[in-house]
From TrEMBL:
Domain of life of the source: Eukaryota
Record-given protein name: Myb/SANT-like domain-containing protein
Length: 151
């Protein structure tokens, strides 16, 4: 049972430079990724050391924070984008304008999708500069093709 008098763990904050440095580091070391796009602890530890110079807020990141950022945020955004692209409704995605929402129908399709995939909201009208790097690391990570399951 944890000691109730201990100080709370400081919240980890990520700025865009840290996130970009992490993705570029993992991209440079993508040969170490498994088929699911995840890395071993040693790679996450090396990434934590690599991004230390980019930290502007909060405590330095350890391998757990790096792994959580990769698996719980970056991979999720990538998979959500790929799933959005595979929607039968003709949902649009490009890396310059993101979902490029134009018109009432496109707005409704996007808003319905965002209800269950909130991380993609930030790409309503702008692309994701890290998308090409993540796509290289997880080349088959998204839902694609005619036989893709779509509830």
């Amino acid at each position: 049972m944890p000691n109730k008098t201990s100080a709370p763990t400081p919240r980890v904050h990520w700025n865009h430079e840290e996130t970009a440095a992490l993705v570029r580091f993992l991209h440079d070391n993508r040969h170490e990724a498994g088929d699911n796009g995840n890395f071993k602890m040693a790679t996450y530890q090396a990434a934590a050391l690599h991004i230390a110079n980019y930290c502007t807020d909060g405590p330095p990141k350890n391998y757990q924070a790096v792994r959580n950022k990769w698996t719980g945020y970056i991979q999720k955004i990538y998979c959500d984008i790929e799933y959005y692209r595979a929607q039968p409704s003709g949902a649009h995605w490009d890396n310059e304008k993101g979902a490029n929402i134009q018109g009432q129908h496109a707005e409704q399709v996007f808003e319905d999708f965002v209800k269950s995939h909130p991380l993609i909201r930030q790409f309503k009208t702008s692309g994701w500069d890290l998308y090409p790097y993540v796509a290289d690391i997880i080349p088959h990570g998204g839902a694609r093709g005619a036989n893709t399951f779509s509830p």
